[in-house]
Amino acid sequence: MKTITKSTCCYCGVGCGVLIESENGQIIGVQGDPDHPANFGRLCTKGLTLAQTAQSQTGRALYPELRLSRDAQRQRTDWDSALDTVAARFAGIVQQHGPDAVAFYVSGQLLTEDYYVFNKLAKGLIGTNNIDTNSRLCMSSSVTAYKLALGADGPPTCYEDLELADCVLLAGSNMAYAHPVLFRRLEAAKAARGAKWIVVDPRRTDTAALADLHLQIQPGTDVALFNGMLHHLIWEGLIAADYIAAHTEGFAALKALVRDYTPRMAAEICGILEADLIQAAELFGRSPASLSLYCMGLNQSAHGTDKNLALINLHLASQQIGRPGAGPFSLTGQPNAMGGREVGGMATMLAAHRDIQNPEHRAEVARFWGVERLSDIPGTPAVALFDALKSGQIKAVFIACTNPAHSMPDLNTVREALQTAEFVVLQEAFAHTDTAAYADVLLPASSWGEKVGTVTNSERRISRVRAAVAAPGEARHDWWIATEVARRMEMLLRPGLPTLFPYADPESVFNEHRALTVGRDLDIAGLSYALLEQAGPQQWPLPQGQLHGQARRYTDGVFATASGQAKFHATPYKPLAEPTNARYPFHLLTGRLRDQWHGMSRTGRLPQLFSHTPEPSLSMHPLDAERRGFKAGDLLRVSSKRGQLVLPLQISDEVSSGSVFAAMHWNGQFLNSGGINEASIGKVDGKSFQPELKHAAVRVEPAELP
Ligand code: SF4
Question: How many Å lie between the centroid of ligand 1 and the Cα of residue 222?
Fold first, then answer.
């Protein structure tokens, strides 16, 4: 008999609702859920092919594997042996070297319930804040900027604002590829209402091609652009002086800074026309409602927080915030990057948006969990985590649902770290990722269509994820595996005490999580699996006694800072972490393709998803190719100070002369290298610790054929 199961797409942060059709234990079809408020039935090519990717079970991790020494091959084992080994090795290292000698590296693909258990295992049981996530590579600059400027993490906006905006500023976002269903909504709104689009991107992407104004800036010059736009708004009287006086702090210092960023000077830094910069400022400042949508182009930068802050400055100064159709809207990359932050699953935060540095916050969580204390030592964020693994400061790492040997910057360092580590655990649905080669223990995890829990999308909306079929082989759910490891470690680290992990199912984890949010900005005490069943996906906050979540924040001009006022930040423009030079003369830009997702562990299974872009390539401007005598299809070696890879040339005027572009998806399974991160740089933003994955200085030369 056919069954329909309501769930949520597992790819991007749009968080589209899906209807999974299954029969005889097989997923046989997937359609968009017409009732889901993110997509109203639409799906993109990735979502539409979810059934086929789920049916392809090739390469799934089906049973636990264990190796007894670094030189040996992993062998199949049973769950008890695998879990006991993980618990004993981790507990042993903690007892010998202290809690900060171990670390967890998890994923924005995990469900909120999975994340909660991992976070409690690290911070509550072991007593280390060394738990970070691949969301560090994705969202941490926008999180940090929201907190610094508005007082709390999370966007003040909602998807409905896409339809209500008169001016849309898309910065560092190829939304047509990375958030396709939202882009369709934006296109429909433009057709209906004539909203003007300004796209800020060093590449002429498919998003930029549809813009009213494309500002093709030099890589990394976003702060200069936003400061120049603000200069124009101030000196043309397009700022909201009353709003600034009543609801913000720090404007005088910002005004003094941007005095120097005349449109001419800013446009020179950005490599664009002064008239275009002025037109952008006029459109943004004079439109009744201006919305900015931004993503990795701002976040994945050694100055990512400043780029976000400079953009938020524009919104605050012109009161383009707290109103329908207006606000700074950071688009979430991963399906549950926001849910992971809600439970505090990062090295720099605690549960429910609490801070590690705040003694009251630590005491609240410790009391709630029933542990003596939480560590006040900040955890080690992603890039530093692998550096510490390489140096031996961290001795064991537990990786869940992510592939750092492909997705982290500077892969030579990451591979060396995984090789050097005393003990590596990998919890994964797929057995042959780049990272799996380094795992001492492989714990097979269930995947999309098999799991139960919740995720939070880009507009703070929590949706249910439901299972349509059983996991294959002996694969188990992520929350269950983390709970079982935790219970075994408890017996070694706090014998005789009642368990901290009394969970029977994901709902019991969710109920504990929501109780910990009471009184916080993301309070979801009023939300339950029953309410999600009855009323559908809901936005936070949703405190006790309310039946629906809140669409927009700060509509009353009261912000989440201690003073209630939003804070301007004077952000000077700083050059790229790695400028080009005579030896490495090209800007290497990275990005995503329309039909692929991350390291292609799912999308790489379907031939039809290669029809749009069949193979990896390096895009280069025709003038640069001609000057060097390169022809389309030539094999070129792309080298940075850290590593190299070989790609065929694609000649394209989408990139400016002086820049080259490569997609980030292809990995060791598809290339004779780990992919574009062989060349990328591990330099991080000093505030958010997010690495500069979007840019590196490289040289390009003909590759010798073997
Ligand atoms: Fe899935 Fe994102 Fe496509 Fe929606 S837009 S179907 S969430 S990949």
Answer: 27
Phi and psi at residue 609, to the nearest 5°: -80, 0
Determine if ligand 1 sits within 6 Å of the CB of residue 14: yes
- 10 CA to middle of ligand 1, Å? 8
Q: Are strands 586-591 and 659-663 parallel, antiparallel or unpaired?
A: parallel
Q: Is 538 helix (H, G, I), strand (E, B) or coil?
A: strand
Q: Is residue 181 in contact with ligand 1, taking CB distance under 6 Å?
A: yes
Per-residue pLDDT, 405: 96
Looking at 1.20.1250.20, 1.10.3720.10, 2.40.40.20, 3.90.1150.10, the CATH number of the domain 586-702 comes to 2.40.40.20
Q: Is 39 in the pocket of ligand 1 (CB under 6 A)?
A: yes
Q: Which of 12, 19, 458, 595 to mutate to test the pocket of ligand 1 (most atoms within 8 A of CB)?
A: 12
Is the distance from the beta carbon of residue 38 to the nearest atom of ligand 1 less than 6 Å? no
Contact 653, 214 (CB under 8 A): no
Does the domain at 3-55 match CATH 3.30.200.210? Answer given as yes
Q: Which fold has domain 140-331?
A: Dimethylsulfoxide Reductase; domain 2 (3.40.228)
Burial readout 435-448 (b: 16 or more C-beta within 10 A, e: otherwise): bbebbbbbbbbbbb
| 536-580 pLDDT per residue, tens | 999 999 999 998 999 999 999 999 999 999 999 999 999 999 999
- Overall pTM > 0.90: yes
With beta carbons less than 8 A apart as the criterion, state whether 411 and 427 touch: no
| pLDDT, tens digit (0-9, with 9 covering 90-100), for 461-489 | 999 999 999 999 999 999 999 999 999 99
In this predicted structure, what is the pLDDT of residue 705? 60
What's residue 299's pLDDT? 97
In this prediction, the residues of the chain whose per-residue pLDDT falls under 50 are none
Q: In angstroms, what is the span from residue 11 Cα to ligand 1's centroid?
A: 6
